[in-house]
Each structure stands twice: as structure tokens, then as C-alpha cells.
Amino acid sequence: MAQEKEMSRVTEWRIRMADGSSEALAPEAGLACRAWLALKGLIMGLVLKVCNFFRKAWDLGQNEPKKVIHCLKVGMALTVVSLFYYMRPLYEGMGGNAMWAVMTVVVVFENTVGATICKSLNRICGTFVAGSLAIGIHWIVSQSGKEFEPFINGISVFLLASAVTFSRFIPSVKKRFDYGAMIFILTFSLVAVSGYRVDKLLEMANNRVYTIIIGTSLCIMITMIICPIWAGEELYMLITRNMDKLAYSLDGCVGEYFNESGSSSDGDKESDKKLLGYKCVLTSKATEEAMANFARWEPAHGRFNFRHPWKQYLKIGASMRACAYCIDALDGCVNSENEVPELIKKHMSNIALKVSSESSRVIKELAKTMKTMKKSSTIDYLVGEMNNAVLELQEDLKSLPTLFINPQPLQGADCPEKKNTGAVALMDIMPLVTLVSLLIEIAARIEGMVNAVEELAEMGEYKSVADEKNENQPVSKTNVPDEHKEEV
Amino acid sequence: MAQEKEMSRVTEWRIRMADGSSEALAPEAGLACRAWLALKGLIMGLVLKVCNFFRKAWDLGQNEPKKVIHCLKVGMALTVVSLFYYMRPLYEGMGGNAMWAVMTVVVVFENTVGATICKSLNRICGTFVAGSLAIGIHWIVSQSGKEFEPFINGISVFLLASAVTFSRFIPSVKKRFDYGAMIFILTFSLVAVSGYRVDKLLEMANNRVYTIIIGTSLCIMITMIICPIWAGEELYMLITRNMDKLAYSLDGCVGEYFNESGSSSDGDKESDKKLLGYKCVLTSKATEEAMANFARWEPAHGRFNFRHPWKQYLKIGASMRACAYCIDALDGCVNSENEVPELIKKHMSNIALKVSSESSRVIKELAKTMKTMKKSSTIDYLVGEMNNAVLELQEDLKSLPTLFINPQPLQGADCPEKKNTGAVALMDIMPLVTLVSLLIEIAARIEGMVNAVEELAEMGEYKSVADEKNENQPVSKTNVPDEHKEEV
Predict the structure, then answer these.
(1) In chain A, what residues touch B167 (CB-CB under 8 Å)?
(2) With an 8 Å Cβ cutoff, are B426 and A433 in contact?
(3) Which label site among A255, B235, B405, B410 has the fewest CB atoms less than 10 Å from its CB?
């Protein structure tokens, strides 16, 4: 602090005046000078922030061109609906109905097809149901006399708004009809407040429903026709991508442990990043749930039919996370300071690497099953191989004491010495034992993944690779099963 | 299937007709009968579903009365704003401006104060900025001549809508201004479509901004005055509750392992549920993030000031999740089939239980620090104790081979036999070694939690318990630090 003050006293600041002369700023003018510096700093900081912001935006756009396309689609939909209404002066006053179409497009147009359809249907249904109900109540009120109107209106708004708001907390409603419930409250309140006569209301409601239908249809059409982003496909891609990451991480973590010096030479950061791929699995729960939620609204697209079992993807995701927890624990234990003696590490490395590579092969095969959407013919074999490797690993662990007591030429020494050797080894090989134990646990959890994927294959009626081959061959009569014969 | 058919043939169905006679349904009428059964099943299923739905809703309401209160608050706010506008026929046509107030209340009123304020400010700013910009462009258009109007409008809507939609993908915007961006697009498009003259527009914009401000103020007032639900407090409660759960789970899992028969007697399901408390930590990431996001909008409330470091809570949450991953792995490894010999298990149980209880004591102390919002005076001591226990555990593990070679009276046997004993033991004690290893890793990760909480205590300027005691005592002159003396 004291140093700084000295500095500012020594430095001389000059300001060039408008008439060309320059004036030295005496230390007394330090306030103005400091204020200028502060302002400059502020502006520079702001400029830097804005630059950063735009750079980030640019990166985002480059990495995910789908998002850019989505933005252009929104712009297009809005322009079309705006101009459509702008061009037709037949509508009363413009402000009225055009507004609802524009509003619908802005509010309903979402990133994925599923989300757009979900919001569209919610909006239409919410408006329709609430409108009908409100008009019905309005009619009753109009029959009962003017003086009760505010009370009945007030009470009905209060009760319905409270009840429907509460329903939005119920998970099953929240998942699917959250937006519809909001629109219900909105529409009902608007009609209750409007104070129009019933016939006027009917006309208005009519117009409004049409406008909303036009708006939502436009949105759904644009979102489905121009480079559609399907929530289902996004979910599917997320899961398969995460599976690959999981396989790579598992392989990588174990590999890195046994071969620390070798792998760090090429592209350190890149491989580190890949090793941490399992963290993506840990953090993708919320995205998976949102996507699965929207996917169920989507019509058949690509290789997915309408009732594709999207919920099963959540189960697969959960089983993957269970694996990822173990990998995270493994990553932690393995990086601890205890150094396992090289000899033992070497002895175990082959079989541990085999387990991890067999395990990740199973995961890769699962990813392949998902990618090709065909039942794998080799998965049982691979799981068997994985389990064999696990057994082998356990066997090898059993042989370990023999190893770590033998290698030193201790044959002549007596028992207490040997105990000591054993003692050192047990403590020292703890990370290794833990790694083995976690590998075994990971293998068990991978079987959970296998089950989840197999259930998906059942539910989604995946064909097995063998069936596919049969289909490609000409069908001989003898091959047709009994039920089919009757039809033939 | 065949059996079923037979059944339906044997059973005789009778229908009571309107005139009182009854008619046996011959097997030929099976179709009607089946249709009736199907319909009955459908209706019963529906009734059951509806009953279930209401039971769930009732449970939800009982468990979380806060949510019920929120619903009543929404109902109240809507009724107030509706009646307010309904009662004042001075407003032109009612439909116009009342609509915006009602809409604002419906859309803006959220569960927590933070979310309501966030949406309110976003709505006001979005409307204001977009309105100003749109009116500005409108004015330029009106100067340039009627024929260009549709083009300029269309292009400006397209460009702005695309750009702002894109900005909603940028994380920093998405977190805070997502709703504002949507409102911006909405308002801008509405004004562009409206086609009014500038002076009319200004009047309308004026009215609309006022209406929105009235609506949002009402929401903010109601949400803050009547039983407010603060996002910050919810986050704080979630984190402290999760900490307690974590401590209990850790203690419980290790305890259960060493004392399987003892604990299972009392309230099995209840304790099982508590043991799985760590799973709450695993799944609460999304909630934590949302709450932290809203909490930053909240004014000072309760024990939290305006700039309370809510972001730090996310760090604490992340460090807790890191612990929970290990507990999950531990839970898996520990429940594996390998049975550790009772003797060794007993030998290790004391110290392992000590580590787990010391660890969970640290976690509980952290939870206490958070609950009391005072720096703990004992946390360093407790962490020391935990680390000592870990060291002791490691020492004990070193002594283990002595133990498992000694107990059997094998002194007379020669070395190969001993090797064998050692070998069996190593394989068998693998779960135990893994448990120890994971306990050590958990202790290390708990230190991460300690750091995160200590950072929070620094940032939030928590007082230490000792300071507090000093404050409560009459301040003696000699105790006052130098700086204070000057002030005195």
C-alpha cells in the first residue's frame, strides 16, 4: 500500500488539452486521475466481458450448429406469423388476435420437437378446457343476476387457481401438464375478468382458439420439417455417447494406474479430458429426464416408433451412473499416495487390465447394441468373458502372497521375518486390492447395465443380428413358424 | 387361455331388465358380456387412478404444507388483481389492460421469493427494453415511408428473434435472463405487428408497463409477506439436511457391516431408509443449482444478507456428492458375497467403526456450523481426530498379517503352510481392505467438505463461537484490539 502511494507520486500524468497544450497533472489532481483510471478500468473490463461473451457465443455456435439453426427457425416462424397478420387488415384492429398467434409462437417454440408438441398440446387443451368452463360459469352467473357476479367470479377464480396450482406440484402432472395447468389458470382468469356478454365471449373464444391452433401448427410444422431436433434422438445420442465415455474412462483409469509413465507422453490434456469422461455420466441425470419427458410426445421418427420405451433409457442412465460412482471412487483410491511395489503391480497388471478391457468391451458392445438397435449376438459371450476375467483376477489375488513372500531370497530366514514381509506388503498393496475390489464391483454393476439394455431390446423389439441375416435370405417354407403357416 | 374360455362358458350372467324381469345371458351373448366387463374394468381402473391421484395429492399437502400455502397465495393474488380490474370500469374495455395484469400474476408468481423476483424483474426489463427498441424502429420506419414498413418489420423481427433466442443458449444468460429474453422477443414482435401510430403506441406501452409493474409488485408483496418461501433458505436447509443424512449413512453402512445381526432387529425398513440417505445427496444437484440461482435475487432475509455467497453452497454440495459416490461404492463392495473371517472382522471392527464415527462427527460438526452459522471451534480438533483414527486404522492393518498368521497354532508347521494361510486370508479380507481403503478416501473427501464449509464461513463472515462469547461478556478495555482503541 505504502509502495503504491510512492509510485503514484513519482509518476507524472499529462493531459493534452483541446488547444493543443499539455498540462502535467500535479499530485493534487490525483482524484481526477484516479477517477479516470477507474473509469478506464471499468470500460476496459466491460469491453473485455462483452468480447468474452461474444467469443463464448461464437464457440457455442460453432460447436453446436443445431442451436443456430433452431434460432433461425424461431426467427422464421415469428416473421411468418407476424407478416401473415400484418398483411391481412381484415382482422379487427390487429392488436387483438394477431397478438395471440405471435404470443403462441414465442412461447411454444422450443428447441426439440417433443417440447414444442408438448407445449402446443398443453396450450390448446388448457385454453379450450378453461375457456369452456369459464364460459359455463359465466352463463350461470349471467342467469343469477348482476349483483352476485363479482363474488362468484372472485370465488371461482380463487378456488380454481389454488387447486390447479396445487396440482402442478404433483409429479405426474408436473412432468406432463405443467404448462397446460398454467394456461388453464390464465385463460380462466382472463375470461372471468373480461366481463363480456356470453355471445361476445363465444365469438372471442372461437377466434382465440383458432389463432392458437394456427400458431401451434406453424410451430410444429417448422420444427418438424426444417432440420428437426428430436428429443428422443438427443436422449439416445446422449446415452450412447455416455456409454462410450464410460468405457473409455474405465479402460483409461486402470491403464493409467498400471502404466503411468507411458501414456502421459502423447497429448496429456486431451487424454486427461477423456479419462474424466465418466463425469459426464454423473451429471447428465437432469438432461436425461427432461429429454425422456419430451420424447414421449414425439411421433415416430427415424428408427423410433411412437411408443418407443423412452423410460427405459432412464433406467439405463441410472445403471450407468452406478458404474460411474465406482469409477469415481476408483479414481480417488488409485491416485492415493501409497505406492504399490513395482513387482506386485506388474504381476497383477496383466489380469487387471484384462478385466478392465473386458468390462469396457461389454460396455462398448452395449453401446453398439444401442447404436445399431439390434440385439447383440455376442453380449452373453462377452459378459462370460468378463466374469471369467474377474474369476481369474480373484485367483491371481490368491496367488499373490506366494509371490510376495517368495521373490526375495528369504528361504533361510525364519518365520518372524516373513511375517514382516507379509505385513509390509498388505499395507502397501491396499490400493491394488481396492482397485481389484472396485473392478469386481464395476463388473457386477455392468451386468445391471446389460440387463437394462436387454430389457430395452425386448421392449423396443430389436431384431437380433441373426434374424436379420435370415430375413435377407429367401424364406423357405420349412422355416415359417406355425402361426404364420395358417396365415399363408 | 383355454381354461379362461371354459370358465366364461360355465358362469351364467343375469341382467335385470327395466321391467323387473331378469334374463340369463346365454353364452352366445358373450361379446356384450365381455364388452361390459371391459368397460367395468376400465371404469374401475379410472376410479382407482383418480383415487390414487387424490390420495397422493393429499399426502403431498400433508407432508409439505408450504406448498398448500403457496397455492392459496396464488389464488389470492389472482383474485385481488381480477377484482381490482373488474371493479374499475374506467379502464377501456377491460379486456385490454386488465389482461396484462392477470397474465403477469399467473406467469410471474412462483413457489419461492427468489424465483418470483427473478421473473418479475426479467419481465419488467424485457418489456421495457424491447418496447423502447420497437418504438424506436417504428419511428424510423414511419419516417422512411409506408412501402418499406413490412420489410423492415419482418427483417428486424427475424434478426432480433434469432439473435435473442441464440443468447438464451449461453449459460450465463440462460441462468439469469432466460425469461427476460423470451419477454423481449414477445414484446418486440407484438409492437412490430401492432401497426399502430407511434403516439398511440407510446400510450399503450405506458399503460402496459404500469400494468405489469402493478402485477409484479402485487406478486412480490404477497410472496414476501405471507409465509414467504425463500429459495436461499430452501437451499440452506437442503444442504444441512443432506449433510445429516450423509453422516448417518456413513455411520450406518459401516456399522451394519460389522454388526449385521444386531441392528436389523428394530424397525428394519426405517433404518434401511435412513441408510440410503446418501442417495438424496446423489440426486439433489439440479435442485441445488436452481435454488442457488434464485437465491441470488432475494433481498436480505432471516440470517442471510443480500450478498450471501450462495454459489459456495454449490461447491459444498459437490464435495458432499464426492463423498456420496464413495459411500455408494462402499455400500456395493461391502455387500458382496465374500465373507471375511469373523476373527479378523472383529479385530478391525473397533478401529474401522472409530474412523467412520469420527468421520461422521466431522460431517455433523460441519452441519452444525452451517445450522448455527458460527465458525466451529472444534472442527480442527475433530479433523485431527479423524486423521488420527485413519492413521491408527492403517497401523492396525499393518498388524493384521501377524494376527492372521498367529492365531492358529501353526508354529510347528513349515513355511508353505503359512503361505497358504496368508493366501486364503488376503482373498477373504478383500472386502475389509476395500472398506478400509474407501474409508480413507472418504476421510480425504470429507476434508474437501471441510474446506468448502470453511470458505463459506469466511465469505459469509461467520463469527466464531469464541468471538460470540467475548461479545456477550462486558468488554474490558484491555481486550479491545488496537484499531478499536482509536475509535474509542
Answers:
(1) 57
(2) yes
(3) B410
Q: Cβ distance B144 to B152 under 8 Å?
A: yes
Q: Write the pLDDT tens digit of every residue in A310-361.
A: 999 999 999 999 999 999 888 887 776 666 777 777 778 888 888 989 999 9
Is the pLDDT higher at A166 or at B1? A166
Per-residue pLDDT, averaged over A202-224, amounts to 86
B297 neighbors B114 (Cβ within 8 angstroms): yes
Q: Do A103 and B67 touch (CB under 8 A)?
A: no
What residues of chain A, 300 to 319, have a C-beta less than 8 Å from chain B?
Answer: none
Q: Which chain B residues touch A70 with a CB distance below 8 Å?
A: 165
Q: What ipTM goes with this model?
A: 0.79
> What CA–CA distances, in Å, run from B35 to B15, B30, B40, B41?
14, 8, 8, 10
Ranking A15-29, A348-362, A418-432, B282-296 by mean pLDDT, the lowest is: A15-29
Residues of chain A positioned with their CB less than 8 A from the CB of B158:
75-76, 78-79
Cβ neighbours, 10 Å, residue A80: 16
Residues B118-148 have pLDDT tens digits of 999 999 999 999 988 988 888 888 787 777 7
Residue bearing cell 472444534: B378
A423, B434: Cβ pair inside 8 Å? no
pLDDT digits (tens, 9 = 90+) for B209-267: 888 888 899 999 999 998 889 999 999 999 999 999 999 988 888 888 887 544 444 45
Which residue of chain B is at minimal alpha-carbon distance from A68? B166
Question: B110 CB contacts (<8 Å, ≥6 apart)?
Answer: B116, B118, B119, B223
Given CB atoms, is B82 within the 8 Å cutoff of chain A? Answer: yes
> Is residue B319 over pLDDT 90?
yes
* Residues of chain B positioned with their CB less than 8 A from the CB of A85: 193
Report which DSSP code applies to A462: P
What is d(CA A245, CA A434) in angstroms, rounded to the nearest whole number? Answer: 23
3-state SS of A192-208 is: HHHCCCHHHHHHHHHHH
**Across the interface, do A102 and B68 touch by the CB < 8 Å criterion?**
no
Q: Chain B within 8 Å of A106 (Cβ-Cβ)?
A: yes
How many other C-beta atoms are found inside a 10 Å radius of the C-beta of residue B323?
A: 26
Contacts of B273 (CB under 8 A, 6+ apart): none
In chain B, which residues have their Cβ closer than 8 Å to the Cβ of A422? Answer: 401, 405, 422
Q: What is the pTM of this model?
A: 0.80
Rg (CA), chain B: 34
- Contact between chains at B102 and A189 (C-beta distance less than 8 A): yes
Phi and psi angles of residue A238, each rounded to the nearest 5 degrees, phi first: -60, -45
Helix (H, G, I), strand (E, B) or coil at A460: coil
Nearest chain A Cα distance for residue B220, angstroms: 17
Residue-level pLDDT at B337? 62
pLDDT at residue A214 above 90?
A: no
- Output Rg (C-alpha) for chain A, integer angstroms: 34
Residues 6 or more apart whose Cβ sits within 8 Å of residue B283 = A285
Of B95, B158, B415, the CB nearest to A79: B158
Residue A201 in grid coordinates: 365471449
In single-letter form, the type of residue at position B8 comes to: S
